[in-house]
Design brief:
The protein is 32% helix and 37% strand. By secondary structure, the chain is α+β, with helices and mostly antiparallel strands. It folds into 2 domains: 185 residues, no CATH class; 79 residues, OB fold (Dihydrolipoamide Acetyltransferase, E2P) (Beta Barrel), CATH 2.40.50. It starts with a helix and ends with a helix.
C-alpha cells in the first residue's frame, strides 16, 4: 500500500469512496487476528459436528413429545461405534419393537449395557412419534449431554470472537469509505505485548484535532516504519464521533489505488479469503446435507 497515493485518493474522492467488492473482503479478512479467529472456527466446527450433533444435547431440540410407554423389544445386532468416552467403548445396539401393532426398528447407545442379538429388552418411545425409541437406560446418541454442551460452548465462543473481529474490520472499512482526514502527532509509544515474525509489537497513541477539540488515535503494529516515517500520520475519523478512528498506516496491507478505486494490492491477497470461505461453505454444506440425517 503506497501511503501517498492512498492519502491523495482519500483526500480527493467523494463519499462514499469507491472500494471494489474484493477489496472490501480483503480488508475484512486480512491480518493475523482475523485469520487466527477463522482458524479456530474451522478447528472447533469439526468437534461441533463430530461430538455435539452426536450427543444427547440434541434431544433438547428434537420433536416427538415426551418419552412414554414401555414396550417389549428384541435386539437385532450390536457393534462398536469406534467412539469412546472416558476410555470406554461406545456401542450401538440395533433393536426392533412394536407400538399399537406397528413394527419399528431403531438404535440406542451404551458404554456397558451390551445386549446380544435376540435378547429381550424394554423400549420407550416418543409420544407423538413412535419411530423414535431407545432401550431404557441407553442413550439415543453416542455421547452424553455434557460433551455436547461443552463443544457447543467452544464453537460458539470462537464464532463470537470471529464476529467481533469482523465487526472491528467493518468499522475500518466504513472509515475508508466515509471517514474524514486529519493529521495526528505521535504522543506515546510503548511495547504492546507479543511479537510477529520476531518483530516487537508496539502500541502507539497519536493526537489529532477536530475543530477545537483534541482526540487520541490508538493502534498496535509491528510495522513501526509505517507509522514513524512522517512527522504527522494520517488519521481517518468518524465526523460525528471522532473518537472512532484509525491510524491509516497501521491498517494491515493488501490494498492499493488503481484507476480511482481501492483494489487488492496483488492476486496473492485473495489467499486471505480461502480460510473463511471454505470454513463457511463446508459448515453450510454439512448443515444442509448431513445434519438432517443425524
Amino acid at each position: 500500500m503506497n501511503p501517498d497515493v492512498l492519502d491523495d485518493f482519500l483526500t480527493q474522492s467523494e463519499y462514499p469512496r469507491e472500494i471494489s467488492f474484493f477489496s472490501q473482503l480483503v480488508i475484512l479478512f486480512n491480518g493475523l487476528l482475523p485469520q487466527i479467529a477463522w482458524a479456530f472456527v474451522a478447528f472447533f466446527s469439526v468437534f461441533f459436528w463430530a461430538f455435539t450433533i452426536q450427543s444427547e444435547f440434541t434431544e433438547w431440540f428434537r420433536t416427538g413429545g415426551d418419552w412414554v410407554g414401555e414396550v417389549p423389544g428384541k435386539v437385532v445386532s450390536f457393534k462398536a461405534t469406534g467412539n469412546s468416552e472416558n476410555e470406554q467403548t461406545i456401542y450401538r445396539i440395533h433393536f426392533s419393537y412394536s407400538v399399537n401393532g406397528v413394527d419399528y426398528e431403531d438404535s440406542s447407545y451404551t458404554k456397558w449395557d451390551i445386549k446380544m442379538p435376540d435378547t429381550a429388552v424394554n423400549v420407550e418411545y416418543k409420544e407423538n412419534d413412535p419411530s423414535q425409541a431407545r432401550i431404557i437406560g441407553h442413550r439415543t446418541r453416542p455421547f452424553g449431554t455434557f460433551v455436547g454442551i461443552l463443544m457447543s460452548i467452544f464453537f460458539l465462543a470462537t464464532l463470537v470472537v470471529a464476529v467481533i473481529v469482523l465487526k472491528t474490520k467493518y468499522g475500518y472499512l466504513k472509515l475508508l469509505r466515509y471517514g474524514h482526514l486529519a493529521k495526528g502527532k505521535q504522543v506515546r509509544k510503548e511495547p504492546g505485548g507479543g511479537r510477529v515474525n520476531d518483530q516487537v509489537i508496539y502500541k502507539y497513541i497519536f493526537q489529532f484535532n477536530v475543530g477545537k477539540k483534541s482526540y487520541n488515535a490508538k493502534c498496535k503494529t509491528h510495522h513501526t516504519h509505517r507509522v514513524e516515517d512522517e512527522e504527522k500520520e494520517t488519521i481517518l475519523y468518524n465526523e460525528k464521533a471522532p473518537q472512532t478512528n484509525l491510524v491509516l498506516d497501521a491498517l494491515p496491507g493488501g490494498i492499493k489505488v488503481k484507476d480511482g478505486m481501492v483494489v487488492p494490492e496483488s492476486p496473492s491477497r485473495y489467499l486471505v479469503l480461502l480460510l473463511p470461505f471454505f470454513t463457511i461453505v463446508i459448515n453450510v454444506l454439512v448443515y444442509l446435507f448431513l445434519f438432517p440425517k443425524l
